[in-house]
Structures are given as structure tokens and as C-alpha cells.
Amino acid sequence: MSTSAISPSPPGMRVPLLDLKPQYEPLAAEIQAAIAKVCASQHFILGAAVKELEASVAAYSQCRHGIGVSSGTDALLLALMALEIGPGDAVITSPFTFFATAGTIARAGARPLFCDIDPASFNISPAAVEDFIATQCEERDRVLVHRASGTRVRALMPVHLYGQVADMESLMGIARRHGLKVIEDAAQAIGSADAQGRRACGFGDIGCLSFFPTKNLGAFGDAGMCVTNDAALAERMDVLRVHGGKPKYYHALIGGNFRIDELQAAVLNIKLRHLDAWSAARKRNAHFYDATFAGAKLGETVMTPRAGAGVRHIYNQYVIRVSDRDALRQHLAGLGVGTEIYYPVPLHVQQCFAYLGGQAGDFPLSERAAAETLALPIFPELAESQLRYVVDSIAAYYRA
Known about the structure:
By secondary structure, the protein is of the alpha/beta class. The chain is built from 13 helices and eleven strands. It has helices at about 20-25, 30-40, 50-60, 70-80, 100-105, 125-135, 170-180, 230-240, 260-270, 275-295, 325-335, 365-370, 385-400; strands at about 65-70, 90-95, 110-115, 135-140, 145, 150-155, 180-185, 205-210, 225-230, 320, 375.
């Protein structure tokens, strides 16, 4: 199909941001049979389906060990607990991400330290991290300390936002030079990879995944996983997710109830077999968007996502940048096009983090992204006519 010109849009077209029913329908009988098998066994906690999923997702993420947990948020919290990060400690991360990234750091008793993003990828900028360490931290007795708060900088938590891996080669170099642990927030990035084919979660000490229903690999509720190549860390997380008890009722550690449900694992085992095909369809849709926006000749009025050369971007979201985002979103809603804003308020200016002393203007690239970004429908089952309608609707708005 040619993308060199704008074509008339079909009347009455509707394009939801996400519709999970077309994904479920061809898998319904298989999924229902898997659920029935679990129900017949009456083994609902940490059974065979969980073990299968842990092994499969770990291998898919180029890791040796998987620890299924109750959500992506709990995966982050469990990782922090396993690394014994708590009061008096600090973790460097991005202010432009979902709340759980910094929220779990605070829940662990540690201090989130924010660094600005790269404006092309929206991921944390290695240059910003380097500058932060050089100007706001110092080594004391071979420990990196944040001067203003006196906290020990223990870890770096990069986020692979929207389905594209952060610049992990640079970030891992920074972490090694300063003795920092690395927790990868890959909630939106299962299967994404850098130009060398190294997948999200396989760089740092622990990788954290979310299987929230809207993710590329989505459960039928909350679920998540920690993956790692460190056998000792895997064992520690395995114990911590069941209240720190091993054997049962004997507690050397204080953990939590972070177990993944057997029913969720049964569903995810089936869906994982289709993940590569779904990711390929998202990429195909993204390329169609790219070409059709280029054909619309909107110039820099609409900036489409930039994927690094050779990387595997899984397009959990397809996010454009426009200067009048809110007005465009309202226009699209009136035409039946679903959109979402990820994320309208950067974390450093969230009310609950006021104690950190953040101010508007501290992280201008994150703040600009929060004001200009808009996610368009990208799920695998979209038809080209729907994708074209989205572009036509945006082009018509600007030509009006």
C-alpha cells in the first residue's frame, strides 16, 4: 500500500488504544483448558506451571534464573530487598517513568536520586548520570555518597521505556566504576535488545518484568518476574517472596508475600509462545506509522519514535511528540481514536516526593517529554486501515 499521500478515511472508524479480545479469542480454548487443568489439580501456589514459566522467561531474557512474583511493582521491591538496599541508601533512576520505579525505592526506605533522560529514546541519559555523580556525589571510604542527603548511592535503576533498551553498555560502565548494583526496570521491555542482540534484563544484577494485562506479554491480572544470572541472588529472592521462610515456618529473613499465582503462570505459558509474533506485528505497525507519517509531510510538527540502529524495539507503546499534545488528544478522541499520556507528571514534582526537594525546571528534558508525548494505538491486531485513519486524523488536525 502506498504511503505517499493521505487517503480518505473510512466513515465511522474507531481505533481503541488497546483491545485484548482479538488476542484472546484464538487462544481461548487452549487457555481455558490450561486453567481447567490447574483447577482439577487444586495446586494453586508455586506449582508446575510456575516452574515452567520461570525457566522459559529467564531463557527468553538470556538469564539463568527466574522468580515469578505477584506484579512488576513487587519485582522491583523484591530486587531492592534482595540487594539489601534500605534506609541510608540511595538509588539513581529516571524521573520520567511509571510511579513504581521510584515508589519501590522509597518503600524500601531508600532515597530516589533522579537524572534526566535522553530526548530521543526517553531512557535515562548516561551523560546525565555521569554529571550527577561528578557534581553531586563523592567517594568516602570507597563508598559513593550523595553529598546533599548523606545517603550511600548503592544502585542504578535504568528503565527500558516504551520497549526500547536503555544505553546499557554506558550505564554498566558507570556502575562498575562506582561499585553500583544495577536493577533493570524492564516492565515494558520483555524481549527488547540492543544492537548486539543482548536482551533487556540480561545486563544488570536483576531484571524486573511486569505481566500486567496491557503489556506485550500480559496475564489475566497482576503478575511479574525477577530474572538474574546470579544463583545466590535467585535463591535469596526465592526465599524472600515467601515471607523469608525456608524451610516453611523458619525465617532467617524478613520477606513478603510476592508469589505469582499458578493460574496466571498457566495463562502466560501459552501466551509466551506467541510473543515473538506479537512483537513482530507491533514492529510492523510501527514501521507503517513511520512511513505514513513521512508521507503526510508534517515535518517536525509530529516527531515519531526513534529506534536506535540495529536495536530490537518491541513497541510496548508508540509515542509521538507534538507541541500541542492536549488539544490533539481531544481532537483524536472526538474521532474515535484512543490515546494515552505516559507520563504527565514527572516523579520529581509528584506531591509524595516533595520531601526530596525537587522543583519544576530541575529536569527539563523529562518535563518537556511529559508535556509533549502521546501514545497511539499499536497493538498487534490493528488493521492498516485503522493505522492510516490515525495518521489521517492527525494530519487533518494540523492542516486545518
